Structure prediction request, 852 residues.
Amino acid sequence: MPINFDISEEEMPIFLAEADEHLQVLDDTLILLEKESSNPDLVQTVFRSAHTIKGMSGMIGHQRMTNLTHALETVLDGVRKNSIQITKQLINICLDAVDHLRLLRDEVSTSQACDLDIDQIVSELKNFSEEGKAENLPGGASGAEVKNNNGGSPGTKSPLKKKIKNLIEAINTEASIPVLPDKASQTEAIIEETNPEGATPALQNGAFEIRAKIDPNSVASAARAFQLLMALQDLGEIQSMTPSAAQIESASSVKDFTAVVASTQSFEKVSASLTMISEIDEISINGMIIMSNGSVVMDRSQSNGTDQTQQPDKIEDGQKTSSPSSGMMLSERRSSSPLGRRNTDMTIRANVERLDNLMNLVGELITDRNQLKQILSRFTRLNNNFDRISETITHLARITDQIQEEVMHIRMLPISSAFGKFPRMVRDMSQKIGKPIDVVIRGEETEMDRSMIEEINDPLIHLVRNSVDHGIESPEDRLAAGKPERGTITLTARHEQGRIILTVEDDGRGIDGEKLRKSAVQKGLISAEEAAGLSEEQSINLMFLAGLSTSQKITDISGRGVGLDIVNTNIQHVNGSIQVETKLGLGTQFQIILPLTLAIVPALLVRVRHAIFAIPLVMVTETLRIEPSEIKYVYRKPVTRLRKKVLSLVYLSEIFNIPQVDEQEKHLFAVIVQSGKQRVGLIVDSLVGEEDVVVKPLGAFIGDIPGISSAAILSEGQVALIVDVFGLFKLAGF
Amino acid sequence: MAKILVVDDAEFLRVRLTKMLDVDGYEVFQAENGLKAVALYKEIHPDVVLMDVTMPEMDGLTALKEIVSFDAKARVIMLTALGQESVVLEAVKSGARDFIVKPFEHERVSKAITKLLA
Prediction:
């Protein structure tokens, strides 16, 4: 069902980003709060985020979101005031509310109402706050330090006050005096009536009777009454007032406000200062005169009845047409993070599509630069003097590099956007399966290309799930093994030599290579002989085989029929690689190595016959010259000896069916690539060089080619195919 | 041209208020917490301040008090929400000249400011 909110297109991304930020803060902080419930800063943080979401959603007319955040905020306020205890149950329900809020947030982005009933959760939250209230009754209303210097008792101090008091009583009891006199004649009549002696009264002092009706919808009518009180205090001396100052200060709601103030101010002044107060539906100000004989009379027609609609609300045209934006300060985009983690910096928002386009253009620029360099080197070889061109090209190359770096940085996001969800996720899972687990995150500020973050999201989730489910032992087993009862999963991110290294580590039981071998044989993935020949390292790598799962039973946490092979595939897909390190009884660490960006890949160019292939450098561990005589055959498969170890070889020409030419005597090259812990030497004819290649998808016309991920245009204008090393391994039967 | 200082930790609220006030022809300044609001107040002497209550670093009530102690004539309008009744009362006692409850309409903001500037 379509649903519309009061939000403009430009406001939308701000709203969504801000809502997301606060929802994440809620998630993170609620979890922290569960552990350190006594930390008042955390309580304040969650309260503030809930409050902010409430305010924002209210502004766009998102009633359900407002209602739910209001209920949540009320509970958190109770926690803040120590009337509600933090329990696991409370945190659960609050987190549940956050989940609901996420769905409601999505309504704003999709303009589609989701089928979500919030009544249940709202009433659960309300139950918490009701309980809290019941416990906290003696506490009473807050912020009500009662000042007693005014109004409370319309005293008997001065005779004047007494007289005015009497008059008020008269006004209140005698129907002959209209409550809201609107005609001059009436008040004049009153004066005559109340001045039976007919003497010219000497003006001794002025007074005003104020009667105001406060907007019944005002959320803080007492505050309005208080504003009236303050204004009256400024004007003169308050003689009487209903409700009393004490009542007003107790913050109880006020509908009707009546007061008499002795003042020497003009009617206009009184009127002006009282009508400045908002949410006063009706106000009547009646002038009074205190006669020398002590009697008090209503003044001449100094009475009026105003309501807000009569106020000069229109803004003058002159102001409307002026341009205020010129002097407007640029605001900092991000409000400083409630947890104080993020730096506030001057930023603008840019459309991702724009950035992608920019990146494509930079790609073209890089291709041109490479070609220019190539052309130049050819000319130089011809011994021509091209100093000027050479300088220019060098400069162009440097600028292009810088632009590339800048554009890449614009596309970068901190990895926290991928890591952020894990504390919550692990908490929920660990509760479900009864294993207490802590999540430690390091290097969350490490920046990565946004598309890369999207790509590694699923693999990360999978690895973390795996650790929770299979890695970390039950608390009993852990205690029995002399480990702390709580398991720990550590996520780290860092930059290293132009690459990004992510790790997912647990302090669980580790992976048993023997078990993996058995399981793989049982499932017919490898033969018993093959299994026997596997090293421990190779056995561990079996876990990346499709169809292998060592878990005894399928659980709804990780055993969804998707194995680590998918993780591996996804990571290879972005030219990354994954490695496992495991120690039985101590834990497992997965290390994911990724390039900085997907759009431009540093690659090693190799030649096989007439074709040039680009092998992502991130996959290459080393290259070596190899004589045909050094290639031996084991089970008809080519191998060679590298530092006393056997290295499997693969002829790229065979894999890609490039016609063989008889070249027995020529030396060859082996490019050693690594996928997981599997190392293979790719046999090529020659090494061409290294180049940053701009990745171009093959397109639907050519489609997927096994072993090839994409193509690139080289500096000499040739097309090179970019090798998908993982796919290649599969093709070669590894 | 009257200067208005908008203080709210929620960017969305700042943007929306700025747009409203922009239309009304005011010069708008923004601050995202009380601390920055107080500093900015001293620098630019705005004619009216629209001040959120719940903010990090320094909340609106504290900022209000600091601003009023610096300038007794300061015209501060508090931006409050349901559930903050007692805060509102304290704000008014501390010198807030008006308060506006979220969610608010453009008209409500315009009126409140016009009243104070009158």
Remarks:
- The domain at 11-139 of chain A is CATH 1.20.120.160 (Four Helix Bundle (Hemerythrin (Met), subunit A)).
